[in-house]
Amino acid sequence: MDAAARLTSKGQLTVPKAVREALMLEEGDTVLFRVDGERATLARTADLLDLAGTVDVPAELRGTQWPRIRERTRAIRARKRR
User: Fold this and answer.
1) 56 vs 10, which has greater pLDDT?
2) Domain 1-46: which topology?
3) Distant-in-sequence, close-in-space partners of 22: CB < 8 Å, separation ≥ 6
4) Which residues 6+ apart lie within 8 Å of 13 measured at CB?
5) Which 3 state secondary structure label does DSSP give 40?
6) Looking at residue 3, what is its pLDDT?
7) Other CB atoms closer than 10 Å to residue 19's CB: what's the count?
8) Core vs surface per residue 22-58: b (16+ CB within 10 A) or e
9) 35 SS3 class
10) Rounded to an integer, what distance in angstroms lies between the CA atom of residue 55 and that of residue 53?
11) Is the pTM here over 0.70, yes or no?
12) Residue range 3-10: average pLDDT?
């Protein structure tokens, strides 16, 4: 689907109704713009509460504190960069 919108002098866009309906966008939803060269993609961002329970966490890692998770993730990423 292609849809066009005009940019206002204040830099605002109105998302066309067909696009809002296709992405199931409602007032207050957050969207993401991803720019690649001279093209941009608009995507609906997921509500974090909707994602609850979608990732299987091994029993031994449940209840791990966020600082420990971040530390572990950074260590894994650092190893992958080498």
Assistant:
1) 10
2) Pemi-like Protein 1; Chain: D (2.10.260)
3) 1
4) 5, 6, 7
5) strand
6) 92
7) 16
8) eeebeeeeeeeeeeeeeeeeeeeeeeeeeeeeeeeee
9) strand
10) 6
11) no
12) 95
The answer to whether the CB of 58 falls within 8 A of the CB of 51 is no
The identity of residue 53, as a single letter, is: G
Type of residue numbered 80: K
Residues 6 or more apart from 41 whose CB is under 8 A from it?
33, 34
**Token pair for 42:** 């608009």
Looking at residue 44, its pLDDT comes to 87
Interacting residues of 43 by C-beta distance below 8 A, sequence separation 6+: 23, 31, 32, 34
Burial of 2 (0-12, 13-18, 19+ CB in 10 A): exposed
Q: What is the pLDDT of residues 11-63, one digit of tens each?
A: 999 999 999 999 999 998 889 899 999 999 998 887 777 667 777 778 888 88
Domain assignments of the chain as residue spans, ordered by start: 1-46
